[in-house]
Amino acid sequence: MKKFFKLIGFAALIGIIYYGSITYPKLDLISGFSAKSIASGHFMDHRSMEAIEKGDNDIKMIDLATNKIDENGQFTTASVYGLKERKAIYREGLGVTLIDSDFDTSAAYEVPNRSKLNSDLPFPYGNLDQKDTVLSSVDYSKLNAAVSNAFDKAGKKHKRTRSVIVIHKDQIIAEKYDIGFNKDSKILGWSMTKSITATMFGILEKQGKYDIYKSAPIVEWQNDKRKNITTNDLLHMNSGLEWEENYSTICDATKMLFQSKNMGRVQLEKPSIFVSNTHWNYSSGTTNLLSYILRNQFKTHQEYLDFWYSALIDKIGMHSMVLETDMAGNYVGSSYGWATTRDWSKFGLLYLHKGNWNGEQILDESWVKYVATPTATSKGGYGAHFWLNAGGKFPDVPRDMYYCSGFQGQMVAIIPSLDLVIVRMGLKESPDFDFNAFLKGIIESVNG
């Protein structure tokens, strides 16, 4: 019997050692994710730590973190079993930045200048609520049923939708929020921010200040085959650069988001493993490299910070939006854009109207066509930092739909043939949330 218990004890020890060996390297990422998530949700959207832990951080392994909020210092800390403590700081105008022990929190920093659109026009072009308008082309009972079906019933956590807005012919025809959220709630778009980043190049191109078909302006690439990579290749995610994007493990993407000081340089330093324009590979590093390239188009850091807001975000009234920066002051264009559901829908409307915003052409129509045209290596699934339905991913949705997409099922869907923008924000994506059925139900109510 003693021998048996010794064997059991030995097996348990081996199990602990094995679990520790595979878990310990992840602790830095776990505490980093948790600290960043708690800080952003609390200081940007005023949610409680308990609500964020139950609603955002209830992810396997992330829920191992112990979190603390310092209200006076405006920062959070997180650790796992007392190990690998990480800190995330909030700065008004810049949102939250996950920092390391070398970061000087007392140093002066620049923030973007913001301007607010004061208009007596109704949404989406002004600050007033829309008048109640009933469109004869819409079956409202069918529409409301489709939208309601996107949400969980009380006490359930299966679909985990936080908000839905449906806009048809510039009219809000449906809008619904989960408990704890409303039209003023800022919600993280994750990779929907990539589409914002790409749009900045469209604006520069319209201004005649940038040519996406020229080699990317990166000095470090000029002495090797990477010198042939164009900004167009980067926008299409087919640069041929090495990159691994797998959020279930330690990879290039997770190390960049939760350990890098300068996220813009992580992809820059990767080798070329394919000839450009021959191999599609989704990469958040590529988008942050584009943000880094964009920064270098301006003489000062302040001009870079201001440009995103003055040329796009504030210009179309997305006043709730905040783009967060890394430790080096680069916008994390791959992932960290926060805005209300209504403001995310304005971005969709800009593209639905072919780059025109209430009479002002912010983007050339050719740019809108460009982002919605499939790159040859994506099987109809990807354009230029926008996802596409050209390949029929959603079989019951028009093929002309293109959309912004983010981790955990954030979506801004643009359907030109139906004059329709649909936004869904939540915490579950396919297969847990059936986007095809969700979109199909709304489309049938408009077609009906």
- N-to-C CA distance: 74 Å
| Helix coverage percent | 25-40%
Major beta-sheet overview: 6 strands, antiparallel
As residue ranges, the low-confidence spans are: 10-22
Structural class: alpha+beta
Instruction: Give the helix tally.
Output: 12
Strand line-up in the sheet with most strands: 6-5-15-14-13-12
Number of strands: 15
User: What amount of the residues lies in strands?
Assistant: 15-25%
What does the radius of gyration come to? 23 Å
Mean pLDDT: 93
Oligomer: single chain
Shape: globular
- Pattern of helices and strands: HHHEEEEHEEEHHHHHEEHEEHEEEEH
Overview of this protein structure:
With 448 residues, the chain is α+β, with helices and mostly antiparallel strands. The chain is 31% helix and 16% strand. The protein is built from twelve helices and 15 strands. Strands 6-5-15-14-13-12 form a six-stranded antiparallel β-sheet, sandwiched between helices. Strands 1-2-3-4 form a four-stranded antiparallel β-sheet, covered by helices on one side. A three-stranded antiparallel β-sheet has the order 7-9-8. A hairpin with a 2-residue loop joins strand 10 and strand 11 (360-361). Helix 5 (193-206) runs parallel beside helix 8 (284-295). It starts with a helix and ends with a helix. Residues 10-22 have low confidence and may be disordered.
